[in-house]
Amino acid sequence: MSFLSATLSRVKPSPTIAMTAKAAELKAAGRDVIGLSAGEPDFDTPQNIKDAAVAAIAAGKTKYTAPDGIPELKQAACAKMKRDHGLDYTPAQISVGTGGKQTLYNALMATLNPGDEVIIPAPYWVSYPDMVLLAGGTPVVVETTLQNSFKLTAEQLESAITPKTKWFIFNSPSNPTGAGYSRAELKALTDVLMRHPHVWIMSDDMYEHLAYDGFEFCTPAEVEPRLYDRTLTCNGVSKAYAMTGWRIGYAAGSTEIIAAMRKIQSQSTSNPCSISQWAAVEALNGTQAFLAPNNETFKRRRNMVVEMLNAIDGMTCPTPEGAFYVYPSIAGMIGKTTPKGTVIDNDEAFATALLEEADVAVVFGAAFGLSPNFRVSYATSDDALKEACTRIQRFCAALT
Ligand SMILES: Cc1ncc(COP(=O)(O)O)c(C=O)c1O
């Protein structure tokens, strides 16, 4: 019998991290690999945020804090929810964790019992199903379609709900597709939830600020105020503020669930880094002026990548509303063979051959629960992106 826990055997390591590690390994061996697999902006953290961290160190704010966040950061999160969404929360309704990942994990750990189902639209952020499994729940994956721009329909949500459904995890704009739900599309989903009072919604708004072409972000609790009591709104500073390494995320919800999340955090990691929390206060309260120029850069890159990938015979790449990902389909290439003799029988074979034969690292669609596709992260320089897309074009053109 294994010394390791049975729960662990149900969980797989993050494939996005594995792909990034493989690319790094090839790079270290001297290969000119271009990585399009990492989920983080290539911009530096804005200076005002770094200055706030330095000031926090100088002021001796280097000790334990309350387990789920300093009052100043909770207050900043409340102000943000009011400013951006017109939603009223008190600090007792805010939980600050070590990255958005921890707050999502805490919420699932705090609420799931064996047999509880969690609806997850696919393609999904890789961690959702495994977190549900770690917490003892059952992921119920519902596949979206490219034809519907990878968005879940009201009918799909309705038919996935059972008496055992506890949560519906909603992520817009999405990792890995970049798809963003309009107010009307989201309202159609919240209307379904209004008919099923036992289902709660966990909204992962991590990519809220990364939206293009005038896309208007909205979050479930503002679209359907009657869902306020059964919505947990999760967000963080990692993506928009280029703070992935600082590890700060937060969630807003009912005092009961927030207290339960606090209990878990207090018995596991305790408070997120005190210095990062002060930096996050500045991120939320300080200037947001850098968001617009950053988004212009992301939009320019998105347009270039979509155009170059759609020029490939057998590839279809929708133009998404936000985040910094695209999720092209390679349905037209399945069954083809690379010059080195690899048969592309699925998207994992495609991504592996692309890395080994063309030195471009992407993440295969099966990792996100919808195939045959792959995810490109365009959070890298224009020159690197152009070269990578040229390599992908050449690689695909050589398939027979
Ligand atoms: C959809 C989504 N939610 C949450 C997270 C977690 O972010 P953090 O780095 O703050 O833990 C990520 C990070 O990749 C993400 O893509």
UniProtKB/TrEMBL annotation:
It holds the Pfam family Aminotran_1_2. It catalyses: L-aspartate + 2-oxoglutarate = oxaloacetate + L-glutamate. InterPro entries: Aminotransferase_I/II_large, AspAT/PAT-like, NHTrfase_class1_PyrdxlP-BS, PyrdxlP-dep_Trfase, PyrdxlP-dep_Trfase_major, PyrdxlP-dep_Trfase_small. It is an enzyme of class 2 (transferase). Keywords: Aminotransferase, Pyridoxal phosphate, Transferase. Its EC number is 2.6.1.-. It comes from the Bacteria. This is Aminotransferase. It comes from Ruegeria haliotis.
